[in-house]
Amino acid sequence: NPRHDWWKQSVVYQIYPRSFQDTNGDGIGDLPGITSRLDHLQQLGVDVVWLSPIYASPQDDNGYDISDYRNVAPEFGTMADFDAMLAGMHARGIKLMMDLVVNHSSDEHEWFRQARSSRDNPYHDHYIWRDPKPDGSPPTNWEAAFNGSVWEWNEPTGEYYLHMFSRKQPDLNWENPALRAEVYDVMRFWLDKGVDGFRMDVINMISKPWNADGSLPDAPVVREGFLQPSFPMTCNGPRLLEFLREMREQVLDHYDTITVGEAPLATITQGRELTNPETGALNMLFQFEHMDLDSVGGTVGGKWAFKPLDLRDLKATMTRWQEALAGQGWNSLYLSNHDQPRPVSRFGDDGRYRVESAKMLAIFLHGMQGTPYVYQGEELGMTNLPFASIDDCRDIETLNFYREAVIQRGESPAQTLAAIRRKGRDNARTPMQWTAGPQAGFTGGTPWIGVNPNSVEINAEQAYADPDSVFHHYRRLIELRRRYPVFVHGRYAQLLPEHRQLDVYTRTLGDQVLLVLCNFSAEAQAFNWPAALARDAAELLLGNLGGLLPSGEPAPESLLRPWEARLYLTR
Ligand code: TEU
Ligand code: CA
Question: Domain Glycosyl hydrolase family 13 catalytic spans what residues (predicted)?
Answer without folding.
Answer: 14-429
